């Protein structure tokens, strides 16, 4: 035996012999061998529903957003499953159906026959804005619950008809304000309600990108009939809706706005390219924002200033990456993430599924979408009058 105190490594022969001995022990069923045993289900785990019990969804419109964000979101849904696609492109529907296991396909001429399909409980309208009202109302008349992409419609008048149709059909109507399910925005909402910021004093919002008329998802946004409005209607609505989310119980009492569209830009013959707006609240808080189709790079920023601290979401409303910066007096700013932004898509459809069942309150009802239509129309009315204040009284 060595007496140096150093560890002696086994020789190659000893390793081979030892390995052979271990194999022999297992082969002989020695007591030294380990046995795999099943364990009982412990506690009360939060398991997803069985697929056949989940709410069935028809996706109406298989454009870039629907294919790239909405459809993949169902992969992590726990109460929702896709059962049908509605598209004017049968080849696209077939290809996606094979990929996602969706065998029911409808086109726009056969759309109303979804009324006879028991596998469809909810319909998600992911069409250009100019088609929202028509297909939402048709889906409601077919007896289905409807989640409609934002902005809800091309006008408050259309939105009123959609809300009325939902009441007549006794079905749920929601607007896809996904930010209400995005974990970083939800976290900030909790801080606001929990008093971390103290008393809210001021809110600002900036949202924009550079519109490319040669890119199909941008092209229809520059057409009044399909887009409904310009940058405010499409992306400025994020600033308005997200800001008001932080002010429950308040009221919008006045609106002023000014167009900021570059002179002579050929992209903006039908809709505004940019607009700056200001909302006055009954509480005395001012909310100001800007939206633009003329900015580069993409901008998505929300800032909330309170008496004790302030918080910034930058980016604030993206599909996959949002970030929080919290700053209070005497402390260095802290930047962090409260969750994965991609989870917002599954959370949104599951939230609507549960609301359709009556198991929870609908966070983003059609009435919220109608509210935002009225506010944005007041912004346009003010801008048309060179920034004159338009008096309104709209509860948040």
From TrEMBL:
Residues 1-33 form the signal peptide. Keywords: Membrane, Oxidoreductase, Signal, Transmembrane, Transmembrane helix. Residues 192-311 form the GFO/IDH/MocA-like oxidoreductase domain. Residues 56-177 form the Gfo/Idh/MocA-like oxidoreductase N-terminal domain. It holds the Pfam family GFO_IDH_MocA. It comes from the Bacteria. The chain crosses the membrane at residues 56-75. This is Gfo/Idh/MocA family oxidoreductase.
């Amino acid at each position: 035996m060595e007496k140096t105190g150093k560890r002696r490594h086994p020789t190659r022969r000893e390793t081979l012999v030892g390995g052979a001995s271990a194999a022999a022990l297992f082969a002989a069923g020695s007591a030294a061998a380990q046995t795999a045993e099943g364990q009982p289900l412990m506690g009360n785990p939060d398991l997803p529903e069985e697929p056949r019990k989940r709410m069935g969804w028809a996706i109406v419109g298989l454009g870039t957003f629907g294919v790239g964000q909405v459809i993949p979101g169902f992969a992590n849904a726990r109460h929702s499953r896709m059962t049908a696609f509605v598209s004017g492109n049968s080849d696209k529907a077939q290809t996606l159906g094979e990929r996602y296991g969706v065998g029911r396909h409808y086109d726009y001429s056969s759309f109303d026959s979804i009324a006879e399909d028991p596998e469809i409980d909810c319909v998600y309208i992911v069409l250009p804005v100019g088609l929202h009202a028509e297909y939402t109302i048709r889906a409601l008349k077919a007896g289905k619950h409807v989640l409609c992409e934002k902005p809800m419609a091309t006008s408050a008048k259309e939105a009123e008809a959609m809300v009325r149709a939902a009441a007549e059909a006794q079905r749920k109507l929601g607007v896809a304000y996904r930010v209400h399910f995005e974990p970083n925005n939800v976290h900030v909402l909790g801080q606001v309600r929990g008093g971390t910021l103290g008393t809210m004093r001021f809110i600002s919002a900036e949202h924009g990108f550079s519109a490319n008329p040669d890119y199909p998802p941008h092209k229809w946004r520059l057409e009044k009939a399909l887009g409904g409005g310009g940058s405010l209607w499409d992306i400025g609505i994020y600033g308005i809706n997200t800001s008001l989310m932080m002010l429950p119980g308040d009221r919008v009492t006045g609106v002023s706005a000014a167009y900021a569209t570059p002179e002579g830009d050929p992209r903006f013959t039908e809709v505004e390219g940019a607009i700056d707006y200001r909302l006055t609240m009954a509480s005395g808080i001012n909310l100001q924002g800007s939206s633009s189709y003329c900015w580069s790079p993409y901008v998505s920023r929300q800032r909330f200033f309170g008496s004790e601290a302030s918080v910034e979401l930058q980016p604030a409303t993206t599909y996959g990456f949002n970030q929080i910066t919290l700053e209070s007096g005497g402390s260095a700013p802290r930047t962090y993430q409260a969750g994965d932004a991609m989870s917002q898509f599954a959370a949104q459809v599951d939230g609507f599924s549960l609301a359709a069942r009556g198991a929870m309150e609908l966070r983003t009802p059609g009435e919220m979408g109608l509210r935002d239509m009225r506010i944005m129309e007041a912004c346009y009315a003010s801008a048309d009058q060179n920034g004159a204040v338009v008096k309104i009284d709209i509860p948040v």
